[in-house]
Design a protein that fits this description.
The chain is built from 10 helices and 49 strands. It is α+β, with helices and mostly antiparallel strands and 730 residues long. It folds into 6 domains: 72 residues; 87 residues, Immunoglobulin-like, CATH 2.60.40; 86 residues, Immunoglobulin-like (Sandwich), CATH 2.60.40.10; 84 residues, Immunoglobulin-like, CATH 2.60.40.1080; 93 residues, Sandwich (Immunoglobulin-like), CATH 2.60.40.10; 234 residues, no CATH class. Strands 10, 12, 13, 15 and 16 form a 5-stranded antiparallel sheet that branches. Strands 20-28-27-24-25 form a 5-stranded mixed sheet, covered by helices on one side. A hairpin with a 5-residue loop joins β47 and β48. α4 runs parallel beside α10. The protein starts with 6 loop residues before the first strand and ends with a strand.
């Protein structure tokens, strides 16, 4: 009979055998051990029967036979209780370059092992970071060489079980080589220890490594392996300069660079030959070389002992190189030394090119009229006096006259006093100037100095220019007067002032220029719009060249009543055709008015009545600014312009109606004089320019024969008959 379930490997398994007869009876029987077979384990006979002692974990088959009958059963064996704990690894020694995997296993009394979980740790704290837990175990990655202990604990039914593993770590393979001295500078008289060291990947120091040495100097490579191995890595340099040191072992390379300076100078010398020539002021290079005991030849800095004013010396770009500039001409011996070595160099300095000029005056203070000795010396860089041609030396001054005397001397005659008077000299582009204060001598400087001459010339020139200007102004005035007389040769009466004429133009809506700028009769109206009364919204005579006399006659012809009537009859605006020819409108007033009558208005030139809209458009175009510009261009002063604008604004305020207004006939009654500017001519009746018609003078009744003033304020004599016809008298 098979046991129920699995059986542990550390416990016996009892086996019971039943005999079943043909009648179905079950009878236990004892069978000898020899009749039993098993794949694993052993059998034993006890008082209770046969027992099977399993050993390994697994599924095993147990068989028994009686006579010709066989019976087999299968039994599953599992491990028993853990009797001990083990840390399983591939070994207990390892390289620092390796990684060791660890397993924690338990073992029963039958030797069956199985993996269990546990707590891992290192006995050495510094190695704790090298141990890490992984699935079903741990991993040990050693870094430092030495002996290390790994500990593991397992908690089971039998309690806490602990296991230990001792691991020895030795250094890994060579991974890095180190040498001392990279970038250092040593002397050829010294030795140098490279202090070679070897390390593995984890930095563990290695010993017993043999290096191969190769040195490279000035492009040539040299094998120094035997020398360095025998000296233990100590080098005794000989060649000065830069050396590249390359070492190799086990396929690992390392290289450093080290500089070797020459040893102490044994001898020194100049590379320039004895008797070397230097031009004063020119820059030349001097090179000093030294030789050490190893035969290295090199440039070396030295201490100089220079004769006074022989050369100027400064350091060059490299050791042993100097820049020298000659000074005083002559032969000089230069000595130099360093350590225990000495040397010298003989040089010859010759005069150089002009470098500067010196000017020396015989006196520091002087007066006009004095004669000074001026010495001009041309020197090179070292101060050597150069012999030059005086004609090529240009000496100038602002204080007088200078001329060459002899050699390097010039004579200066002072005739211009002043502070800091300049004296300059120039030779081949080299310039020098000095300044001298020259006092004025009262007995010499009057009218003789350059400043006085300049002032007198300026005054004379100013007077001459003034006289020329006065002459030009008088000539221009004469020309203007002649032009005006030619233009107004018919005028017999003096003109009134411009403001009065302006007011007359306002009432006639006819703008006329001032008396000095009278427009041509045939020219179209170009002036600004004038202020006008409502009865003067159309003006026939300016557009057709009519004069005031024609306009007055035409106005009288429009009257329905006789001219002597004091009650004017308003007439409706009508369209009057202009005269057929413009020349007819320009005939004398006597000719046009001879045939005029109250019933024959066709003989009077007619114009088309201007609409208020057209007048408004014309007025809008002439702004105050434009009127001011136009009046100023005609020569008006500010008072005349202001008076004109005031009257213009006052009279045009009520003349912008859209309905045409009736004409006002000319009345024979004398009108009230209007206010005129302060410049009006005194003791004269109201100016005709205020109404735009013929105005009777004192002693003449309006509309009767007598003297009248026209629109320009000019008097004339007129004959008026009973029919109202006007004829100008002689």
């Amino acid at each position: 009979m098979s046991p129920n379930g699995s059986v542990p490997a550390d416990q016996p398994v009892p086996l019971q055998l039943l005999w079943i007869d043909v009648q179905g009876n079950h009878v236990p029987v004892r069978i000898p051990l020899s009749n039993w077979t098993a794949e694993d384990g052993n059998f034993r006979m006890t008082s209770t029967g046969v027992e099977w002692l399993p050993r390994r974990v697994g599924n095993w088959t147990i068989g028994v036979h009686v006579e010709d009958y066989w019976v087999n059963i299968s039994i599953d064996v599992v491990h028993g209780n853990a009797s001990r704990l083990l840390i399983v690894s591939d070994g207990d020694t390892m390289s620092a370059d390796d990684v060791l995997d660890l397993l924690l296993q338990a073992e029963d009394v039958r030797g069956n092992r199985w993996t269990v979980g546990g707590n891992w740790s290192m006995m050495e704290p510094e190695a704790a970071s090298w141990l890490s837990e992984v699935e079903n175990g741990a991993r040990f990655d050693a870094a430092m060489a030495g002996a290390w202990t790994v500990s593991a604990e397992h908690v089971g039914v039998e309690g806490i079980v602990t296991a230990f593993l001792f691991i020895e770590v030795f250094p890994g393979a060579l991974a890095r080589i180190e040498l001392q001295g990279h970038g250092e500078r040593i002397s050829a008289d010294e030795s140098f220890d490279f202090q070679q060291r070897f390390y593995d990947t984890d930095g563990n120091l290695l010993t017993g490594v043999m290096l191969n040495w190769t040195f490279t100097h000035a492009g040539h490579s040299y094998d120094r392996t035997n020398d360095l191995r025998s000296s233990g890595g100590v080098w005794y340099p000989q060649l000065a300069g830069h050396h590249d040191v390359l070492v190799e072992a086990g396929g690992v390379f390392y290289q450093i660079g080290i500089d070797v300076d020459p040893g102490m100078p044994h001898t020194i010398r100049s590379l320039q030959p004895d008797g070397f020539v230097i031009i004063s002021g020119e820059l030349v290079e001097l090179v000093i070389n030294a030789t050490d005991l190893d035969g290295n030849d090199f440039g070396n800095d030295v201490q100089w002992m220079l004769p006074r004013d022989s050369i100027e010396l400064e350091n060059g770009s490299r050791s042993g190189h100097y820049l020298a500039r000659g000074l005083v001409a002559g032969e000089h011996t230069l000595a130099f030394t360093t350590g225990f070595a000495n040397g010298e160099l003989r040089i010859i300095v010759k005069p150089g090119d002009p470098h500067h000029i010196e000017i020396e005056l015989s006196r520091d203070s002087a007066q006009t009229g004095d004669v000074l000795d001026v010495e001009v010396r041309v020197l090179d860089y070292g101060g050597n006096l150069l012999s030059v041609d005086p004609e090529q030396v240009e000496v100038t001054t602002s204080t007088g006259q200078i001329a060459h005397d002899t050699g390097t001397h010039w004579r200066l005659l002072l005739d211009n006093p002043g502070v800091r008077q300049r004296i300059s000299a120039n030779y081949s582009g080299v310039e020098k100037e000095v300044f001298l204060d020259v006092d004025a001598d009262p007995l010499f400087a009057f009218g003789a100095s350059g400043v006085a001459t300049t002032l007198w010339g300026a005054v004379a020139g100013a007077i001459l220019l003034f006289l020329l200007l006065v002459g030009l102004m008088r000539s221009r005035a004469r020309r203007e007067t002649a032009s005006l007389e030619l233009l107004y040769e018919e005028d017999v009466e003096p003109k009134e002032s411009a403001p009065v004429a302006t007011l007359a133009a306002l009432h006639t809506r006819q703008f006329r220029r001032p008396a000095h700028s009278k427009p041509v009769r045939d020219a179209p109206l170009t002036g600004p719009p004038m202020a006008a009364t409502p009865a003067a919204t159309f003006q026939p005579h300016p557009q057709h060249g009519w004069n005031p006399y024609q306009y007055a006659a035409w106005m009288q012809a429009q009257q329905p009543q006789p001219a002597q009537s004091l009650a004017p009859a308003p007439a409706a605006p009508q369209r009057i055709e202009p005269p057929p020819q413009e020349s007819t409108a320009q005939q004398a007033p006597a000719t046009q008015t001879a045939g005029m009558s109250l019933d024959s208005s066709a003989a009077v030139p007619a114009v088309e009545v201007a609409t208020e809209a057209a007048a408004g458009t014309e007025d809008e175009a002439w702004t105050d600014e434009r009127i001011r510009q136009w009046c100023a261009a005609q020569g008006w002063d500010e008072a005349q312009i202001s008076a004109y604008l005031v009257q213009l604004h006052a009279t045009t305020a009520g003349s912008v109606a859209h309905e045409p207004e009736a004409e006002v006939p000319v009345s024979e009654k004398e009108e009230e004089p209007a206010a005129v500017p302060a410049e009006a001519v005194p003791d004269r009746p109201a100016d005709v320019r205020e109404s735009g018609v013929m105005k009777a003078m004192d002693g003449t009744e309006q509309g009767s024969t007598g003297w009248y003033l026209d629109a320009e304020g000019r008097p004339s004599y007129w004959n008026v008959d009973a029919a109202g016809n006007w004829e100008r008298g002689e």
